[in-house]
Amino acid sequence: QVQLVESGGGLVQPGGSLRLSCVGSGFTFADYPMSWYRQAPGKERELVAVISARADNSNYVDSVKGRFAISRDNGRNTVYLQMNSLKSEDTAVYFCNLLSNYWGQGTQVTVSS
């Protein structure tokens, strides 16, 4: 069965950086685009970034453009989200996603001084 396992969240000060990882299993990882979503308290889940199967195309929500970078290593079945210049409004649970149907358990990112 499909499994997505995120890691790398934590508490970071404004302006800091974090790198999230998501390891996929139970499917042919290299065949599918992968996405990162986030959900802040009291808000709807939103798409943050998506990367094509071959990593030749990626897209971002406007609020993270220039600060976040999505990447993948198909040999390791892993998708990453490098988050730089973090702001308090980036505080959320971040989820890895496959085909809008499969979700990881989420990893908490808290940006606070």
- Pick out the low-confidence regions: none
| Arithmetic mean pLDDT | 97
Query: How do the helices and strands follow one another from N- to C-terminus?
Result: EEEEEEEEEEE
Please describe the biggest sheet, giving its number of strands, its sense, and whether it closes into a barrel.
7 strands, mixed
Oligomeric state of the chains in view:
single chain
Secondary structure class reads mainly beta
Query: Which bin fits the share of residues in helices?
Result: under 10%
Q: In words, what does this structure look like?
A:
By secondary structure, the protein is mostly beta strands. Helices cover 0% and strands 50% of the residues. It has no helices and 11 strands. The strands form 2 sheets. Strands 2, 4, 5, 6, 9, 10 and 11 form a 7-stranded mixed β-sheet that branches. It has a 4-stranded antiparallel β-sheet with strand order 1-3-8-7, with no helix packed on it. The radius of gyration is 13 Å and the shape is globular.
